[in-house]
Amino acid sequence: MKDFANLKRNLKKDASALKPIKVALLGDTATQFLAKAIQGAGYEYGYNLQLWEADFNQVERQVADPSSELHEYDAEVVIIFQSSHKLLGKYNKFKANHTAFAADELNGIKALYDTLASVNPKVKLIYYNYTEIDDNVFGNYANKVTSSFLFQLRKLNVLLMEYAAEVSNFHICDISSVQNLVGKAAFFQPSVYINSEMVLSLEVLAPIAYKTLGIISALQGKFNKCVILDLDNTTWGGIIGDDGIENIQIGALGIGKAFSEFQYWVKKLKNRGIIVAVCSKNTESIAIEPFEKHPDMVLKMEDIAVFVANWENKVDNIRKIQGILNIGFDSMVFLDDNPFERNMVRENIPQLTVPELPEDPAEYLEYLYTLNIFETVSFTEDDATRTKQYQVEAQRATLFEKFTNEDDFLQNLAMVSVVEPFTKFNTPRVAQLSQRSNQFNLRTVRYTEADLETLAASPDHFTFSFTLEDKFGNNGLICVLILQQESEDLLFIDTWLMSCRVLKRGMENFTLNTVANFAQQKGYKYLKGGYIATPKNGMVADHYSKLGFEPDGDNWLLNLTQYQNKKSFIDKK
Amino acid sequence: MERQQILDQVTDIFRDVLDNDDITLTDATTARDVEDWDSLNHIQLVVGIEKHFKIRFTAKEIHSWQNVGELVDSVAAKL
After folding, report:
1. Is B37 on the interface with A (CB under 8 A)?
2. What backbone torsions phi and psi does residue A103 show, to the nearest 5 degrees?
3. pTM for the predicted model, two decimal places
4. Which of A541, A562, B57, B63 is the least crowded, having the fewest Cβ atoms under 10 Å away?
5. A201: contact with B, CB 8 A cutoff
6. Which chain B residue lies closest to A200 (C-alpha atoms)?
């Protein structure tokens, strides 16, 4: 992590080639340094953050006034930072019963979001939560007094979390956890505050800016999806090949507690949808043994999506894992205790996140907590079963090798698909795919749940979601199309995206057959498709020409009157 | 530490924070004499000096200096 001075230097660098994002920052204290830190961190994340900063203490006015500079600026992301210091001031002047203070504040915050969303329904609000100030008017007893400031402040943070759980475009940047990490003395410098109205010390500007960018970046679809584990001295203590299964340190043996707790953490990541892979220099059968037989192992074989243990170099093995999972290197994290391996991997695959694990395994977790490498902006039930899906994918790969003819293979899979418009049940998953899909994504327009609800209700749009199931298992919802009526004759394919785990199953043909037949029945004559190139979606650059669309300026056109269904081995369920 | 040494080190901090190697400070230098030395950068300078000398200024001190000489006096008094 760069410090504030270096983040500030980023502002002098040329960011014009980076992806622009319009961000607005409003605060009730002086935010000039914070603005610079966020902009500088944006550069670190690969964005050209175009930041508009409201004048000091103008939060309500800028939001409430429809002709304000804020609304004119029309930011994608609005950040609001209302400080605990000002909160304390409001509490001191609060006229009603102080037990109602937090609820009253929350209403004010809700009103801010509602007003922003009424002007721009797509806006994402990042709200900074409240760092703790204990005015110690009651001492410990404050915890028993519902009207105390400490009670109301903590309550407000919980109310904010409950509100954020309900409202998909309302995100919380947890600066309270930053204060917990660095301590209040480092977070807040009274002499600076008195002289400048700044409540953040220079030291915490960078951690807060990085935390903010974590959310912004995840909103852009950029986040880590996979963790690759080394085994010896990373997942357990000792060397399995030398020490043997009885002597590796996990559970009660030696410093085994450090590794057990590390494994619980990885297991929680897996349960929330992070793919866990193993990459170890070991004989495979020996490396697998603890996962199957050691009673203290938290991680089991069923938790591991791809298991690679051999004596080849780790760079090649990681490339192999990436090939099977079919996700970008920039969404993978590699954890290894050996600095030599880390450096070798880092040099060869620079996109990979390779944390510099501390030497002492006791410190692994505390260090990893500080990195916030698994930021996300969604969580669905589908996430929990992702590992299973990738394991099934490995089985499919084995079956594929048995068939010489691809059609026979596809036929043998017995694939079925459920095709549905967006519903309240599938919308969370559709939104997640919209944010996650980078490679098979023709225009990479990101939609949130709220956006999708609007589209589903719109008379000018037709929405499609596809699942895919075969004899090995269910991939769940993996493909999304949004058609927009451009004229009586023509439907424009606003969105066509697909999860890469179902590539090469003929899903493209099935999808096109489905929407083409739909459009024909509705009396449309043309489908129009567009491709917007990004650094990641090169694989679909020729998508429309491959499917028989004709070039039409920058777009592609399919004449439906002559359309004949394409070969497909998928049945509609 | 000699007064001159403090002044030299403070000068280095100014150059680093304001990203300008041409800065030369004397006791008589004021904010008006140095490009970019505004109230905001002043905070960054103060915190940089605090960190370097491992000292803390009071809110009043930060507010009171009329020139670099007075700033250096404050540092010297704390070492």
Report:
1. no
2. -60, -40
3. 0.76
4. A562
5. yes
6. B43
Place A401 in a pLDDT band, splitting at 50, 70 and 90. low
Q: Which residues in chain A have their CB less than 8 angstroms from residue B44's CB?
A: 4-5, 33, 202
pLDDT per residue over A519-540, tens digit each? 999 999 999 999 999 988 999 9
Tokens 């954890």 — which residue? A335
| Partner-chain contact B47 A190, CB within 8 Å | no
Q: According to the model, what pLDDT value does residue A392 have? A: 79
- Chain B residue numbers with beta carbons less than 8 Å from the beta carbon of A198 are 43
β-partners of residue A441 are A497
CATH assignment of A413-572, given 3.90.1300.10, 3.40.250.10, 3.40.630.30, 3.30.70.1050?
3.40.630.30
DSSP A54-122: PPTT-HHHHHH-TTSHHHHHT-SEEEEE--HHHHHHHHHH--S-GGGHHHHHHHHHHHHHHHHHHH-TT
Query: What CATH architecture applies to the domain B3-78?
Result: Orthogonal Bundle (1.10)
Of B39, B47, B59, the CB nearest to A202: B47
* Tens digit of each residue's pLDDT (9 = 90 or more) over A281-318: 999 999 999 999 999 999 999 999 989 999 999 999 99
Q: Where are the beta strands (DSSP E) in A299-444?
A: 306-310, 332-335, 415-417, 419-420
Contact at CB, B59 and A9, closer than 8 angstroms: no
Q: Which CATH number fits domain A4-219: 3.20.10.10, 3.40.50.1110, 3.30.420.40, 3.30.465.10?
A: 3.40.50.1110
**Chain A: closest CA distance from residue B61 (Å):** 9
Indicate if the pLDDT at residue A437 is higher than 80: yes
Q: With beta carbons less than 8 A apart as the criterion, state whether A389 and A501 touch.
A: yes
Domain A226-371: which CATH number of 3.40.50.1000, 3.30.1300.10, 3.40.640.10, 3.30.420.40: 3.40.50.1000
